[in-house]
């Protein structure tokens, strides 16, 4: 019997499992999925916990709830991947041989990469919101904070969900206004990018939103260290920014197993063909979601669109046929802008976010690069879609290829 092994049961790995399980011949293929954790997190929901919109229980479910029957699910840490031997060794001593491997081990924050960040003041007045522990600790802090200077800093790119730091400052502006202390809080958005976002036109739009909300933007800041004793972040050029509260998006890196296996770059992301999602080095290894080194966003929508492409390509590879499906870098993101409104962007490798209507040309109901209440509702509806449709591999009415219909140049 042939063997397909999927490493990682997060968003990307679970979607691929549910897409492939119904179509692979059970007399010919055995599917195994491996993950060391039993809990699945709806990570976009982490953003809302500090502001009391969601609680931790709103973003947590058991991973096994989303596994189809008839597959092998193993809860274990992965010791090493040995792609030249077509095998994976688990911490418990099990060796998994495979004919095809899908690596969906994701990415995670690494605050220790920045000197002084993860020391005495970690989760006292220095917080992340990209983990369940960080976002719940920040929620408790904000509940009793009386004001001061809040700095939101991106350590370096790439990061999971590049719009989330902007959403955080927009929601913070709303939250402090609702609490009646906005006039007691200075908010500064400090980024290594030359502007508010990775794409120039959208960056200008978001920069205008920051100005409108009286949020200071400091671009081109490459953090070297955190001076936690004096409440300062310091750049490699020795520029300093003072803070009372530091909300950090630390360096994002791929899983440690990628480094142990010698499969990744300096950030433990695996070199991957940007269109076919096949490993650059091993023909029977495919990479999905945040584990790739692709120049696309590390976001849930990207994993969804990539999964559609990989679904076709891995079946072609199994049949010995050319890989014809091409991923174009498509991503779309709902961006909370506060006060019950949101913005939507849709883009790919080559095309920047443009104004228009989505997903139906001229109809919507969502508006691109425009702040509307409907876009906020889209963001809030997505949690139900995630748990009930996306993870289960259901077909959604959005093409994996970005379409220009409905967009205005």
Task: Estimate the global geometry from the Cα principal axes.
Answer: globular
What is the count of β-strands?
24
Q: How much is the average pLDDT?
A: 96
Task: Flag low-confidence runs.
Answer: none
What is the number of helices?
7
Structural class: alpha/beta
Task: Describe the secondary structure blueprint for this structure.
Elements lengths: L1 E6 L3 H10 L8 E7 L3 E3 L18 E3 L9 E4 L2 E5 L4 E4 L4 E3 L2 E4 L3 E3 L16 E2 L4 H13 L3 E7 L9 H15 L6 E6 L9 H13 L3 E3 L4 E5 L4 E4 L4 E3 L2 E5 L2 E3 L1 H5 L24 E3 L12 H19 L12 E8 L2 E7 L8 E5 L3 E5 L4 H18 L19
Parallel strand pairs: 1-2, 1-9, 2-5, 9-20, 11-18, 12-13, 12-18, 13-14
Antiparallel strand pairs: 3-4, 6-7, 7-8, 10-19, 15-16, 16-17, 21-22, 23-24
In short:
The chain has 409 residues and is of the alpha/beta class. The protein contains seven helices and 24 strands. The chain starts with a strand and ends in a 19-residue tail after the last helix.
Features:
5-stranded parallel beta sheet, FAD/NAD(P)-binding domain, 7 helices, alpha/beta
């Amino acid at each position: 019997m042939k063997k397909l092994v999927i490493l990682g049961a997060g968003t990307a790995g679970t979607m691929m499992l549910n897409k492939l399980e119904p179509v692979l011949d059970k007399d010919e293929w055995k599917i195994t999925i491996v993950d060391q954790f039993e809990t699945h997190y709806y990570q976009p929901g982490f953003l809302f916990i500090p502001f009391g919109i969601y609680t931790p229980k709103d973003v947590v479910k058991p991973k096994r709830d989303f596994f189809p029957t008839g597959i092998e699910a193993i809860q274990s840490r992965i010791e090493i991947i040995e792609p030249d031997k077509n095998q994976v060794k688990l911490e418990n001593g099990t060796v998994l041989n495979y004919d095809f491997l899908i690596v969906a081990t994701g990415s995670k924050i690494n605050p220790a990469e920045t000197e002084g960040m993860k020391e005495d003041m970690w989760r006292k007045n220095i917080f992340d919101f990209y983990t369940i522990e960080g976002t719940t600790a920040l929620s408790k802090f904000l509940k009793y904070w009386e004001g001061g200077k809040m700095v939101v800093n991106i350590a370096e790119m790439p990061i999971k969900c590049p719009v989330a730091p902007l959403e955080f400052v927009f929601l913070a502006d709303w939250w402090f206004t609702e609490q009646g202390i906005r006039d007691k809080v200075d908010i500064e958005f400090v980024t290594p990018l030359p502007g508010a976002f990775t794409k120039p036109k959208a960056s200008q739009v978001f920069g205008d939103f920051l100005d409108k909300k009286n949020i200071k933007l400091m671009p081109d800041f490459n953090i070297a260290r955190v001076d936690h004793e004096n409440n300062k972040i310091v750049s490699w050029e020795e520029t300093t920014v003072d803070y009372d509260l530091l909300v950090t998006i630390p360096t994002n890196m791929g899983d440690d197993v990628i480094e142990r296996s010698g499969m990744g770059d300096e950030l433990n992301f695996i070199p991957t063909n940007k269109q076919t999602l096949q490993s650059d080095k091993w023909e029977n290894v495919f990479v999905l979601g945040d584990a790739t080194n692709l120049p696309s966003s590390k976001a849930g929508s990207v994993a969804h669109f990539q999964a559609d492409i990989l679904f076709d390509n891995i079946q072609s590879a199994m049949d010995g046929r050319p890989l014809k499906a091409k991923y174009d870098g498509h991503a779309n993101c709902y961006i909370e802008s506060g006060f019950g409104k949101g913005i939507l962007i849709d883009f790919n490798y080559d095309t920047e976010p443009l104004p228009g209507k989505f997903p139906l040309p001229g109809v919507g109901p969502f508006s691109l690069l425009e702040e509307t209440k409907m876009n906020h509702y889209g963001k809030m509806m997505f949690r139900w879609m995630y748990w009930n449709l996306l993870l289960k591999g259901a077909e959604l009415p959005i093409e994996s290829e970005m379409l220009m219909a409905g967009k205005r140049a």
